[in-house]
Structures are given as structure tokens and as C-alpha cells.
Design goal:
Layout lengths: L6 E7 L5 H10 L7 E7 L12 E6 L2 H4 L2 H6 L4 E7 L14 E5 L2 E11 L2 H10 L9 H13 L4 H11 L2 E9 L2 E6 L8 E6 L5 E6 L2 H6 L3 E5 L4 E5 L11 E5 L1 E3 L4 E2 L1 H6 L5 E2 L2 E2 H15 L6 E4 L5 H11 L2 E2 L3 E3 L15 H8 E3 L1 H4 L3 E6 L6 H12 L4 E6 L27 H8 L3 E4 L2 H8 L6 E2 L1 H4 L1 E2 L7 E2 L4 E3 L3
Parallel strand pairs: 15-25, 18-19, 18-22, 22-23, 23-24, 26-27
Antiparallel strand pairs: 1-4, 1-10, 2-3, 2-4, 5-6, 6-7, 7-8, 8-12, 9-10, 9-11, 12-13, 14-28, 16-17, 20-21
């Protein structure tokens, strides 16, 4: 089973309350995580002590379950950050929900993180030896401690630069340092992060930082650009946001190559998002067309596994000239965490989400298009449903190459032993899934469809070669240049 990657957002307004637009931004990013949600806000206007006071609200569940209209209206502050989570490190519990709020003798910071560090354990042991206490088991708290340690002696720019020298892995961050909004993206740009501009309710100006551009669209904003790998953006709380110098950019670190996560294009991101210059919908349409070129077959129809396979299937149908039909109807009222009776079957669990349209598939030779296959257990049940409803032939087409290795950089993938393609041949996979034929997209086909050079993508789960050093794994050496700050 695939899980989504966390979603983060940050908003700074001239006037007004940042909590409500943050709620809408997180709602738009809900597909990236459904375990917990949180919002932290602060006033940009300095109080008597010269520091903004950060308030935090978070809880377990979907965004609409955690926040009420009354809470949002009373949650005052025109600068804020938000987070929707699924766990890559740390258990699914309220203590690990983000943003994390840290008090230290110079003030407060709140931090929300999308990504995963690979040297968390090493850094945590070091910090604990210094006497630092941890209240969660997330890698985000490791980042927070490193920042606080730096902020005691340095300004935010130097403190974040020093943190970036220590952490290894993927991280897109939104941070409140008292009442200053900061955004940071790791030097390889593994996880997405973008910048937009909005108008507040009183005609003032505002900025939005978000994991995906759809959050900016939701707020009727204007997409400006992606946050550059290794870049830090800082919105000064004492400046009018309409001023030309209201947004500071600091290139703290620069890699020779990037390593954008290819699975953002295959699965994670919404199809209407723009990631690093590419519209995800267009990428998935190209993938579907390439699939048809590489793995054409005589059939009567093309159908997706909803919802993630839809754009792929449309592209396949257009290129192949086959009819596009919906072989499944998805129950959109079933969440990821719905409860089954203790002895309920896994078939029933899948059937609650997907129902086969017998009239569409009966007696048909169908091409079924999915975005990817991880363990293959759900795919196997889906094929069984189609055959039981009378499908004459099922030809499975997959919008990614075989997943042969785990992800260590922010995706909850199984071990190699659990991955269907890591130890089976193509014929063995076909027999396991009980399909008439199977076709995976080639690696070259994926790279061409994404439109980003292979040496600027993270392809670790598809090749077993990673952009950062991971014990026991092969590393593609990618150099970093640290800037002076």
C-alpha cells in the first residue's frame, strides 16, 4: 500500500487572519497525508517585547476533523504555517503531529517538515549527549533542536546554514522564528516547495509557501516560482509586504545536480500541480502515451485504477485509439483509516473502495492502467474482481518501472523482501497478479515523459542508486557547494 508524502504550507499577510487560508491550503494538500493536521500562527506586528507570540493547534485526523470554523476565527495571527502528515519516521500519534513548537530562552520557533532524514539516529544521540530532551520520535524535532542550538548564537540565516551542513536527506521546511516566516528546501530539491502571491481581504499583499501549486490556486493566488534547491526564503515581519524588499532570498547551498523525487510525478502530487516547471497532468498523459507505444495490445477498452491511474489511462487511450471506459467506480466517502470488523476480509476492504462496473467489463478485453505496483496484494485482488465480473482478458499496464528498492527519503515503501518486483521475474509477476499480460513503463520512457534529465531526478526506488549516502546502499555521488553567509 502506498502512502502519501506530507504537505506543508506557510502564509504571511499584511493584515487579517492567516489561519483560515492555511486551513484551505491544507485541505488542498490533504492527499499528501491524512494522519494529523496542524496550524501555528503568529502576529507580524511586534509586541512590546519585540517578539511575536506563536499559537499552535493540531490534532489527529483529516483537516476538517481537526479544525472548526469557530476555532479558526479565534486563532489570530497574520503569519502562520501548517502541516498534514503521514509518518515516515515516528509513530502515528498526537505527539508527532506538526507543526512542532519549541520554546527557548530567546523566543519560540514552530516548524513543519516534508521529507525524511537518513542520519536522524546519529544526530539525536549527539543532541541527547548534550542534554537536549526529545518529546517526539520524529526527525523534525532533530531539525528543530539544531535550529534552536544555532539561533542561540547566530541570526536565522547562519543558523539554518549550519543546520543544512549537518542533516542528510530530504527536507522542505516552513518555519516561524517568533513572527518571521521562513521556507527552506534541501540542496537536491528532493521534495517540492513553491512560492506564490495572494491578496488579503483588505487589499493588502500576502505570500504563500506550499508543497504544491494547487494550494496557491485554491487561495486565488499567483504562482511565482519553485523554491530553489538549497534556497532559504525569509519574509521580514517588520516590513510592509507590498515593499520591493519584503522577501529575502538566500542561496545557502547548491548541488551540482538536483534529485527531484520522480514519484511526485508518478503518484504523490495532484495532477493539476506544477512541480519544478512541469504540469503533473501533462507528465502523466505522456506516460500513458508512452505506455501505449511500448506495450500496445489488441483490446476493446482502456480503464484506470482510480483515481491515480486516470491521466495515464487517458493518455494510453488517445495514443492507442482504444475507447476509454470506467471499469471501476470509487467510493470517495471511504477514507484511508476506515474500520473493518476484526475478522473482516481484505477483499471486503478493497471492495468498499472500488466497485467493478459489470456492464462495462463483461466479455471485454481490457487494458487496466495503474500508476505503480508496490507489494502487489491489492492489485491481485483487483484483477480477481474483474475476472469474477466477466472480464474476458485483463492486460495490466503500469505507469512506472518496477519498484525494486526501498525509499529512504520520505516515502513509506516496504523492505526489498516485500516489494513485488524486487525478487520476481516479469512472468512470475504476471502469474502472481493473474493477468493476461503486464507491461511496465521503461526507465527511459519515464525520464522522457517527466522532461527532466536522469541526473537531476531521484530514481532510487527504481534503480537502487540514491542521491545521498545510505548505509548498505549504492550512492550516486552528487557534490554540494556551501555558500558563505
Amino acid at each position: 500500500m502506498k502512502k502519501e508524502s506530507c504537505g506543508i504550507a506557510g502564509i504571511a499577510l499584511d493584515e487579517g487572519n492567516a489561519a483560515l487560508p492555511l486551513f484551505y491550503a491544507l485541505y488542498t494538500l490533504q492527499h499528501r497525508g491524512q494522519e494529523s493536521a496542524g496550524i501555528a500562527v503568529s502576529s507580524r506586528k511586534e509586541n512590546e517585547g519585540g517578539k511575536g507570540d506563536i499559537s499552535l493547534m493540531k490534532g489527529m485526523g483529516f483537516v476538517y476533523e481537526v479544525f472548526s470554523t469557530h476555532q479558526l476565527e479565534s486563532f489570530k495571527g497574520n503569519v502562520g504555517i501548517g502541516h498534514v502528515r503521514y509518518s515516515t519516521t515516528g509513530a502515528s500519534k498526537k505527539e508527532n503531529a506538526e507543526p512542532l513548537l519549541v520554546n527557548y530562552h530567546k523566543g519560540k520557533i514552530a516548524i513543519a517538515h516534508n521529507g525524511n532524514l537518513v542520519n536522524t539516529a546519529e544526530l539525536k544521540r549527539e543532541l541527547q549527549r548534550e542534554g537536549r530532551v526529545f518529546h517526539s520520535d520524529t526527525d523534525t524535532e532533530v531539525i528543530a533542536h539544531l535550529l534552536v542550538k544555532g539561533l542561540v548564537r547566530h541570526d536565522p540565516i547562519e543558523a539554518i546554514g549550519n543546520m543544512m551542513k549537518r542533516v542528510i536527506g530530504s527536507y522542505s521546511l516552513v518555519i516561524l522564528v517568533d513572527s518571521t516566516l521562513i521556507a527552506v528546501r534541501d540542496p537536491f530539491g528532493i521534495k517540492p516547495l513553491c512560492l506564490g502571491e495572494i491578496n488579503d481581504a483588505n487589499g493588502g499583499k500576502g505570500y504563500v509557501i506550499a508543497s504544491e501549486s494547487t494550494a496557491i490556486d485554491m487561495l486565488d493566488g499567483t504562482f511565482i516560482r519553485d523554491v530553489r534547491p538549497g534556497e532559504m526564503l525569509m519574509i521580514n515581519p517588520t516590513q510592509d509586504l507590498r515593499a520591493e524588499n519584503n522577501l529575502e532570498s538566500h542561496q545557502l547551498c547548491r548541488g551540482v545536480n538536483t534529485a527531484h523525487c520522480v514519484f511526485e510525478y508518478i503518484y504523490f502530487a495532484r495532477p493539476d500541480s506544477i512541480l519544478d516547471g512541469q504540469l503533473v497532468y501533462d507528465v502523466r498523459m505522456k506516460i500513458g502515451a508512452r505506455l501505449a507505444e511500448e506495450h500496445g495490445v489488441e483490446a476493446d477498452m482502456v480503464s484506470p485504477v482510480p483515481d491515480s491511474g486516470i491521466a495515464f489511462a487517458i493518455g494510453y487511450a488517445k495514443r492507442s485509439g482504444l475507447d476509454y471506459e470506467e471499469g471501476f467506480i470509487k467510493n470517495r466517502y471511504v477514507g484511508r483509516t476506515f474500520i473493518m470488523p476484526e475478522k473482516g476480509s481484505r477483499d471486503d476492504a478493497v471492495r468498499l473502495k472500488l466497485n467493478v462496473v459489470r456492464a462495462t467489463v463483461e466479455g471485454k478485453r481490457m487494458v487496466l492502467v495503474d500508476d505503480s505496483i508496490v507489494r502487489g496484494t491489492t492489485s491481485r485482488r483487483i484483477m480477481g474482481f474483474l475476472k469474477n465480473k466477466g472480464a474476458k482478458e485483463v492486460h495490466l499496464r503500469v505507469g512506472s518501472p518496477p519498484i525494486i528498492a526501498p525509499c529512504y527519503l520520505g516515502i513509506d515503501t516496504p523492505t526489498r523482501e516485500e516489494l513485488l518486483a524486487s525478487y520476481r521475474s516479469l512472468d512470475e509477476i504476471k502469474d502472481f497478479l493473474n493477468v493476461d499480460s503486464i507491461g511496465y513503463l521503461s526507465l527511459d520512457g519515464l525520464i522522457d515523459s517527466v522532461g527532466i534529465a536522469a541526473n537531476n531526478l531521484c530514481l532510487g526506488c527504481l534503480t537502487g542508486k540514491y542521491p545521498v549516502e545510505i548505509p548498505g546502499e549504492e550512492c550516486i555521488a552528487r557534490q554540494l557547494k556551501l555558500s558563505h553567509f
